[in-house]
């Protein structure tokens, strides 16, 4: 029986391995992690991450051919294929601080694999890493190999949170990069055979190592670029009276462009886009390509601009101050159908409003109070380290209360900001919300989910990104 071990039981390692176990009943899959609470949660009824369909998959194979364990060394030493899916945060100090990927966790995983291995292994990069990481890892492994043969493969993960199980069941493509040597080809084939249990062969792309590593960074940069492009257009729409939804529909129907990832919003978030683009920028700079670096940096700058613009719009509309005013925040996760708050635009928007002394009442169906308080007090990039290495929430932000109901959050509020596109926000009783708010009552929709006309009829002053402005807002321009 082929044995797979995956180091890192996070948003990628957990769901990916659960699907491999489900689709390959004859393969034993063990997911290991240094975080005891995380592994305990994977072994309980309350999984550590929320992802539609995940619980069902885990329940079908946990205890049969899917296991979660903290005994990292034992399972690595027994495995034929070792996936590495650990954190790869942005460096906060030293060379490349603020841009380069911090490979501390990856390197320590590689050294451990070298130390405990007693048989040949295929080591698979699942984490997103800088180009040429495989070469460094290869050096660590082969210098300690005691005659053991290690083949390194790059198999970047393209799942999107919120649709991870759907994406894993039917991936657009699986990408496997390996050395172009007979041993390399053999290793690529072994991994291909795993995916071939459920992915059609034509959807499994094989490349050299560096192409696979760079393709992942490039794919995220292209996706984020589309969001920044449409967000840049949204500012121009507001200035001219065009409607960004109409513009993006008209643009997206061009089959060369396509309709996906063209929704204007308060900005992109998630653990990957910013980190991976910063990483790409750093790689360009290191390779003497400052113009290319500058080009990609602009994608992040527009994202920051969009978040600032939203905050300025809120403050400017409300007579240039939100001091001591209750502002309801609906949605804190970086997108719907996930509880993940890593790099969510809600953090910057909330911090901006708190900077103007607002009182925030936050509701998100999947995010806990503890997580929100941690996010609002944590330093930049601290979130991307294993849980037990993150600073404990040292203090709480007193102007923030977290509630479990949208109606409670909006009661007596001066304004509502919608920051995540949760479906349930579309069906709220906005008349009831309006009746219980201070007047004038404002709604700032950062995700374009509400029906503008209906809300205006009720009496709200409404702002929706990239849409023609209310007369009220026109008189109160907000320049970022
Ligand atoms: P995560 O933070 O949820 O999980 C990483 C896990 O690795 C943590 O549970 C941590 O405790 C564990 N870990 C760290 N060092 C370890 C070690 N030496 N031994 C054992 N366990 C260790 O991170 P996530 O989101 O799963 O991301 C992992 C990688 O996958 C990152 O490189 C990320 O860029 C990439 N990725 C993430 C995607 C996403 O949607 N979250 C999508 C595609 C790629």
Automatic annotation (TrEMBL):
It comes from the Eukaryota. Its EC number is 1.1.1.22. It catalyses: UDP-alpha-D-glucose + 2 NAD(+) + H2O = UDP-alpha-D-glucuronate + 2 NADH + 3 H(+). Residues 328-452 form the UDP-glucose/GDP-mannose dehydrogenase C-terminal domain. Gene3D superfamilies: Cytochrome c1, transmembrane anchor, C-terminal, NAD(P)-binding Rossmann-like Domain. Pathway: Nucleotide-sugar biosynthesis; UDP-alpha-D-glucuronate biosynthesis; UDP-alpha-D-glucuronate from UDP-alpha-D-glucose: step 1/1. This is UDP-glucose 6-dehydrogenase. SMART domains: UDPG_MGDP_dh_C. NAD(+) binds at residues 8-13, 33, 38, 86-90, 127-128, 161, 272-275, 342. One of its GO terms (molecular function) is UDP-glucose 6-dehydrogenase activity. The active site is at 272 (nucleophile). The keyword NAD applies. Belongs to the UDP-glucose/GDP-mannose dehydrogenase family. GO terms for biological process: UDP-glucuronate biosynthetic process. It comes from Abeliophyllum distichum. SUPFAM superfamilies: 6-phosphogluconate dehydrogenase C-terminal domain-like, NAD(P)-binding Rossmann-fold domains, UDP-glucose/GDP-mannose dehydrogenase C-terminal domain. Keywords: NAD, Oxidoreductase.
């Amino acid at each position: 029986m082929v044995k797979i071990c995956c180091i890192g039981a996070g948003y990628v390692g957990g769901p990916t391995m659960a699907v491999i176990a489900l689709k390959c009943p004859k393969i034993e899959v063990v997911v290991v992690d240094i975080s005891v609470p995380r592994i305990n949660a994977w072994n309980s009824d309350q999984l550590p991450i929320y992802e539609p369909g995940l619980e069902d998959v885990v329940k079908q194979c946990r205890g049969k051919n899917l296991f979660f364990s903290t005994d990292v060394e034992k399972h690595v030493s027994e495995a034929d294929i070792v996936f590495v899916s650990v954190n790869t945060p942005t460096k906060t100090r030293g060379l490349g601080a603020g841009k380069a990927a911090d490979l501390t966790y990856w390197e320590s995983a590689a050294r451990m694999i070298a130390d405990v291995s007693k048989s040949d292994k295929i080591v698979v990069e699942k984490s997103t890493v800088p180009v040429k990481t495989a070469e460094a890892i290869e050096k660590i492994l082969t210098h300690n190999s005691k005659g053991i043969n290690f083949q390194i493969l790059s198999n970047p993960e393209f799942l999107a949170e919120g649709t991870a199980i759907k994406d894993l069941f039917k991936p657009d493509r699986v990408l496997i990069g390996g050395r172009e040597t007979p041993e390399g080809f053999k290793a690529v084939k072994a991994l291909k055979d795993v995916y071939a249990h459920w992915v059609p062969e034509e959807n499994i792309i094989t490349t050299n190592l560096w192409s696979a590593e760079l393709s992942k960074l490039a794919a995220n940069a292209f996706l984020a670029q589309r969001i920044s492009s449409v967000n840049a257009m949204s500012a121009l729409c507001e200035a001219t009276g065009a409607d960004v939804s109409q513009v993006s529909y008209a643009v997206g129907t061009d089959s060369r462009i396509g309709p996906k990832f063209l929704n204007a919003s308060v900005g992109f978030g998630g653990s990957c886009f910013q980190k991976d683009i910063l990483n790409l920028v750093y790689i360009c700079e290191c390779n003497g390509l400052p113009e290319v670096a500058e080009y990609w940096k602009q994608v992040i700058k527009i994202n920051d601009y969009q978040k600032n613009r939203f905050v300025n719009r809120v403050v400017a509309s409300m007579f240039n101050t939100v001091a001591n005013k209750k502002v309801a925040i609906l949605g804190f996760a970086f997108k719907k159908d996930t509880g993940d708050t890593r790099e969510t635009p809600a953090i910057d928007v909330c911090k901006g409003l708190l900077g103007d002394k607002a009182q925030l009442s936050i509701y998100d169906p999947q995010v806990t109070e503890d997580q929100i308080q941690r996010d609002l007090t944590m330093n930049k990039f601290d979130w991307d380290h294993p849980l037990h290495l993150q600073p404990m929430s040292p203090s709480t932000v007193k102007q923030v209360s977290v509630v479990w109901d949208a109606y409670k959050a909006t009661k007596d509020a001066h304004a509502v900001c919608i920051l995540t596109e949760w479906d349930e926000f579309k069906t709220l009783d906005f008349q009831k919300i309006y009746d219980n708010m201070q007047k004038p009552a404002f709604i700032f929709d950062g995700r374009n989910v509400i029906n503008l006309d209906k809300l205006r009829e009720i009496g709200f002053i409404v702002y929706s990104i990239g849409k023609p402005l209310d007369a009220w807002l026109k008189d109160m321009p907000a320049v970022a």
